[in-house]
Amino acid sequence: MANSIKRLLGQTAVYGLSSIVGRLLNYLLVPLYTYVFADPADYGVVSELYAWVAFLIVLLTFGMETTYFRFMQEESDKQKTFNNGLLTVIGINVLFFLLLLYFNNDIATFMLYEGHNEYIIFLGVIVGIDAITALPLAKLRSEEKALKFASIQFTSILVNIGLNLLFMLFLFDAKRPEEGVLFILIANLCASLVKPLFLMDSFTNLRFDFDWKLAKIMFIYAFPLVIAGFAGIINETIDRILLKQIIYDPLVPGSLHEAEYQVGIYSACYKLAMLVTIILQAYRYAAEPFFFAQMKNENRNLIYVKVMNLFIAFVCLVFLVVSLNIDIFKLFINNENYWSGLKVVPILLLANVFLGIYYNQSIWYKLSGKTKFGAYIAIGGAIVTVLVNVVFIPKYGYMASAWATLLVYALQMFASYILGQKYYPIPYNTRKFLAYIGGALALFYLGSSIAVDSKVGQFFITNSLILGYVLFVFLVEQKRFLGSFLGERTF
Question: What is the pTM of this model?
Fold first, then answer.
């Protein structure tokens, strides 16, 4: 078990080089955008556009990454499984792009971007390229070619950042904010084109021997994952879309600007809460194929439990570091016009902790083949997300969106745990989980309640609490503390 955990940590570290370091580099774009877009409404346009991208990427990849990982464990001809998945994704994307070319004007009007059809076309091309290259990248992960995977992702990110810096600092005219939006899309398109260039062998070696019988089985497995993924994206990004659509009133002058203004503030502050998400993304790249690879390991449950213990402890630590040092992290957004939204950061950080736990738990329905439950949980969450946002946005604005996110991720976490214990029991140490999460919340409350005139003094006090949390976790994992409360199990 120890060797398996070490291998997972090692692969997570390599994937993290492209994901965590890459995302952190992409984070440099946030102070850039908030600097060049002095009006949060202009940044709101960019944020809302990319919220739509998140929906499309789930639909256009059609769950083929997870499906490929699942079926390659059973099929003797792994290349046939890959061919089937990739041809399916290519077919879906060709159909999508043809529809986009025909209806782009209607789509732009619906999204309140009338007169900017170019936004829609660029988004469609970007998403199509990313969707088609997703499965070849997944193949690299399954073959444990982490370094090649990281180099492709990292190169794409560097191209995106470099072009953004060039366009926004040297070519952008602040008097024409719509020009800045277009520059951002062009930079993203160029970055996306890097991936197929590095993955050309996956396309040149593609065999057009489509197996309809296998395709049907893969489709049945993938369809609930698509529904779950689509519903999951509703939980993650629909709030920005609803903020704009609900606050905007065509009968009220200036309401479109107000709607985009709130989206801009909420989106910028949301980025501070995404440090947990960045770590989660790197972890998931390594964890999903790793968990599937443990299917036949008789000690798999011990491994799953130990991984969950360490994961919860770590993401709770990130929650404390960011939330208790918000006066430092807010400088990342170098425009005070955005700071009014900082109060959503601790809420969203905790929400992402719950999301991470849910992602870990979700392995039970993927391993057991009961993917329909993933769809049920995600759909339930999506319904709650939409209802809470629709009911409370008119009165509370983006604060309603933040609390809706926390509520939904907490409900999904509990629902997944209860169903998982019924259909694919994994003996998680729930008392340890509660100790880690409860301890983090208690320290956050304590740190937030302490007010010291000296900023240096405040820094030392709050970070002493964080160090205390690290010591607490260390003692628990070493079984030198709270042994009777947390249980004496070896994991």
Answer: 0.81
